[in-house]
């Protein structure tokens, strides 16, 4: 509901937005004795302002807004949920749409919150923006990409390969970045399920490439003190892969 309480929400760029009586304000300037906030509705003709003390705990002055400037009694809840969606998109590794659907489902359990929860159109850009900030920009050239062991390797993968007597190999071609020809993966059976344990982005799909992959795997296995010797290898018909096994 519309509140006389001063409330704050974080913006997409981690700045503070003030919410008061169903309207949002952004800080314009800090004076010697007060702070001046301006209407954040985006309405061109709205010159609504709000002045607070320096601690922003008390409203000193409030000017009129344009007649077309809307009042949203649930503005704080709406922006609070947007901030939570941004936070989860940044911290949670699940797909952005899955994160949104989960929070939306929780909000839709009550008619009091369902109407004011941000729509997908309102949340999409800000969520993807927050997600993108987690990752470094891709370099211009593939040769400049640096994937360190810290980013790509765990010690459990080699152990799972060593404990499995059946490996499954698979190649995906349509989902890879344009720099590469395929994503080659190795899987093992664990508790009745097929678990991917090795991912290889390759620029070719020929015998030398597959041979090199298995050489690296055996080398890494020796480093952690395990032996790789599966009794069975399952793959679809890949002419170059079969001789490399």
Key structural traits:
single chain; 245 residues; alpha+beta; Ubiquitin-like (UB roll); 3 domains; six-stranded antiparallel sheet; 8 helices; 32% helix
Could you explain how this protein is built, in words?
- With 245 residues, this protein is of the alpha+beta class.
- It has three domains: 7-62, no CATH class; 75-132, no CATH class; 151-244, Ubiquitin-like (UB roll).
- It is 32% helix and 24% strand.
- It contains eight helices and ten strands.
- The chain has helices at 75-91, 96-107, 111-114, 120-132, 149-152, 156-163, 207-223, 241-244; strands at 7-10, 16-20, 23-30, 35-39, 49-52, 59-62, 166-172, 182-190, 193-202, 232-235.
- The strands form two sheets. A six-stranded antiparallel sheet has the order 1-2-3-4-5-6, with helices on one face. Strands 9-8-7-10 form a four-stranded mixed sheet, with helices on one face.
- Helix 1 (75-91) packs parallel to helix 4.
- The chain is elongated and about 80 Å long.
- The mean pLDDT is 87.
